[in-house]
Design brief:
The complex is a heterodimer of chains A (401) and B (228).
Chain A (H helix, E strand, L loop, with lengths): L1 H17 L1 H37 L5 E6 L24 H8 L6 E13 L4 E9 L2 H5 L4 E4 L4 H5 L4 E4 L1 H7 L10 E4 L2 E9 L5 H4 L1 E5 L15 E5 L6 H13 L7 E5 H44 L1 H9 L4 H34 L9 H28 L2 H6 L2
Parallel strand pairs in A: 3-8, 5-7
Antiparallel strand pairs in A: 1-9, 1-10, 2-3, 2-9, 4-7, 5-8, 6-7
Helix pairs in contact in A: 1-11, 2-9, 2-11, 2-12, 9-12, 11-12
Chain B lengths: L3 E14 L3 E14 L3 E5 L6 H8 L7 E6 L2 E2 L5 H11 E4 L11 H10 L9 H11 L15 H13 L5 E5 L7 H18 L2 E6 L2 H5 L3 E6 L2 E4 L1
Parallel strand pairs in B: 3-8, 3-9, 6-7, 7-8
Antiparallel strand pairs in B: 1-2, 1-4, 4-5, 9-10
The chains are: A alpha+beta (401), B alpha/beta (228).
Keywords (chain A): Cell membrane, Membrane, Transmembrane, Transmembrane helix
GO molecular function (chain A): transmembrane transporter activity
Organism (chain A): Candidatus Collierbacteria bacterium RIFOXYD1_FULL_40_9
């Protein structure tokens, strides 16, 4: 078999060398077919990765307690927090009560305000947040430089601050040089002890975050909290913990005074969106495979049909039908594999390049399907017209125009 | 008397033109080609002489009748067997040369040997070199057919038809695409091959001058052989 195949391969390769334009066009067709599928899927996956990355920052196991009727109620206001009127005014007693709820990992009080923040280089109106040390764990914040504040800082009302990346970048020369310097806001001076990595969440990235106790002066004289975040170890416990927390708060407040929102509810919606994105990806992949396939089909069909005369000549000098088929099969196979591999290599290079800006990803299934289907189409439409031409009598094939 | 190398018995060939009309190209042809003959199939265009040649050359199957080679009706052979027989029994020379432009002169001449099933009693490359040398195209062995003259291309085609050492050479208007001088040279080559090597040659032509140079004239008119 092998010593029968090698002269065939040699003759196919020799053929390509002599017919460079046809070879280039045909393998280009297959290359583009493979590349379009792999790239479209890679871009789609990139979009998915990007969106899911954004949502991961929010934390799936987060329960938010807001005064009033929360997100959905009248006057509930936006996440920005300015428009919250009425309802409960949470304080440290609520925190202590909520800590008694079983199954809770974190209880984080949240003070939220907008205000001017002055740095070394510039000043900016941004979010002022007062939280406890658990906030960073709860929000999956990663420290870029310096440290985050701890329990001691919270109990000592330490005048320290952790800056969001964008804010640090704007009010200091360089984001990671902010550590050790100080910022001023609302009449107090805070020492910057850390900068957290960019999260993609604008609120978070442009905030100055300090111990909540530190806000209990000029920023927050009433010593109340805008919201309380609860962290639950796993998604399954979210529901039970929410109802426990509700019971605790009902001892002190009316039902309408507060609202409990689970992040998991949002996550369900997000998962539905992902399901849809996946479907769309499959659709995009199929369409590009179809388009690529039709391209490959056309060029293979055209080039082989054009060679009907050649087939006739070969038949006239003694080639059997099977000789013709083997020849065209070898040629299509080599062309398809060559074009397919070139498409894959080019896609890989492009993906590596785009990854610098956008989290695109090669998907093995997409690669296999794109390569497989394109090669199959290439081979089929390389062999099928040849089979048709070989079925003609040699003289019909020679005269074919 | 020489024996027949191929015999045609009551050959009909027809095909449909459109859905209704049937065109009959050959109407009961009986013909025998003998070993060592040099014959010309003549006739006006449309008379069926090319069709007759294609049937003799196993390029096309007749609608009915018998084609007998070595006492065997080859119409009962399947396509693979016909291909093999075609490669060993007959060599073609076409009016349009029908060389593959992407193969060199030498590769074109050797093309039939790549499809051969038999063991060669000679070295095909040596035979190709001998033929190229004899036909004065050895210096063009690495050229491509579209880079050489028509006369040279037809010499390549004749060399290709001889590479398998066939029993019969069929030439369809071999001088039709050549000027008179080159045509005469090609005819001289055929005559020489027939006289010195006793190769059986049948050529199709509508030119009486060409036909005169052969030793037997098979006249075809209206799908029938009128004089042999």
């Amino acid at each position: 078999m092998l010593n029968k195949l090698s002269p065939l391969l040699k003759s196919a390769l020799a053929d390509f060398r002599r017919d460079k334009v046809r070879t280039a066009l045909t393998s280009l067709g297959i290359m583009i077919g493979v590349m379009s599928v792999v790239m479209l899927i890679a871009l789609g996956l990139g979009l998915k990765n990007y969106i899911s990355g954004q949502f991961e920052n929010l934390g799936a196991n987060l329960v938010m307690i807001l005064p009033g009727s929360g997100f959905t109620g009248e006057g509930g206001g936006s996440f920005g927090g300015q428009g919250l009127v009425g309802g409960a005014e949470f304080d440290e007693k609520d925190i202590r009560d909520l800590r008694k709820v079983e199954g809770l990992e974190y209880v984080v009080p949240l003070v939220f305000k907008s205000g001017l923040i002055q740095g070394e280089k510039d000043e900016k109106v941004a979010s002022i947040m007062g939280v406890n040390e658990d906030y960073f764990e709860l929000m999956n914040s990663k420290i870029l430089s310096g440290v985050i504040f701890d329990k001691t800082d919270v109990s000592n009302n330490a005048k320290v601050a952790v800056l969001g990346y964008s804010l640090a970048e704007e009010i200091f020369e360089k984001a990671n040089e902010a550590v050790g310097k100080s910022v001023r806001t609302q009449g107090i001076r805070l020492k910057v002890i850390g900068v957290i990595e960019k999260t993609g969440d604008r609120e978070q990235d442009s905030a100055v975050i300090m111990p909540y106790s530190t806000t209990f002066g000029s920023i927050n004289p009433q010593k109340t909290f805008w919201s309380i975040y609860l962290g639950v170890p796993s998604e399954e416990e979210v529901e039970s913990v929410s109802s426990e927390a509700e019971k605790v708060l009902l001892k002190r407040y009316e039902e309408d005074d507060f609202a409990i929102t689970e992040q998991a509810e949002i996550l369900t919606t997000v998962n539905q969106i992902f399901g849809m994105i996946n479907l769309v990806l499959v659709a995009i992949g199929s369409i590009s495979l179809l388009v690529g396939g039709v391209g490959i089909m056309n060029i293979m069909y055209a080039t082989v049909t054009e060679r009907t005369k050649e087939i006739g000549i070969r038949r006239a000098v003694g080639a059997r039908r099977s000789d013709i088929l083997t020849q065209f099969l070898t040629e299509s196979l080599v062309l398809s594999l060559f074009g397919g591999l070139a498409g894959l290599l080019l896609s890989a290079a492009l993906v590596a390049l785009i990854r610098i800006w956008f989290p695109v990803a090669m998907n093995l299934t997409a690669v296999i399907v794109a390569f497989g289907v394109s090669s199959a189409i290439g081979i089929f439409f390389g062999v099928f017209p040849a089979k048709k031409a070989a079925a003609l009598s040699p003289i019909e094939a020679i005269r074919y125009e | 008397m020489n024996s027949s190398i191929i015999e045609l018995k009551d050959i009909y060939k027809s095909w449909m033109i459109g859905d209704e009309e049937e065109f009959v190209a050959l109407k009961g042809v009986n013909l025998s080609i003998k070993q060592g003959e040099f014959s010309a199939i003549t006739g006006p265009s449309g008379s069926g002489k090319s069709t007759l040649m294609h049937v003799i050359g196993l390029l096309d199957k007749p609608t009915s009748g018998e084609v007998v080679i070595d006492n065997k009706n080859i119409l009962s052979l399947d396509d693979d067997e016909t291909s093999t027989l075609r490669s060993e029994f007959v060599g073609f020379v076409f009016q349009q040369f029908n060389l593959l432009n992407k193969l060199t002169v030498q590769e074109n001449i050797l093309l039939p040997t790549t499809y051969a099933r038999k063991k060669f009693a000679y070295n095909p490359l040596e035979r190709a070199e001998y033929l190229m040398d004899r036909f004065g195209i050895l210096s063009k062995r690495s050229s491509y057919p579209n880079k050489i003259s028509g006369g040279q291309q037809q010499r390549v085609a004749i060399a290709r038809s001889l590479i398998m050492n066939p029993r019969l050479i069929l030439a369809d208007e071999p001088t039709g695409n050549l000027d008179t001088k080159t045509g005469d040279e090609i005819m001289k080559l055929f005559q020489e091959l027939n006289e010195t090597e006793k190769i059986t040659i049948v050529l199709v032509t509508h030119e009486p001058d060409i036909a005169k140079k052969t030793r037997r004239s098979i006249h075809v008119l209206d799908g029938m052989v009128t004089t042999t």
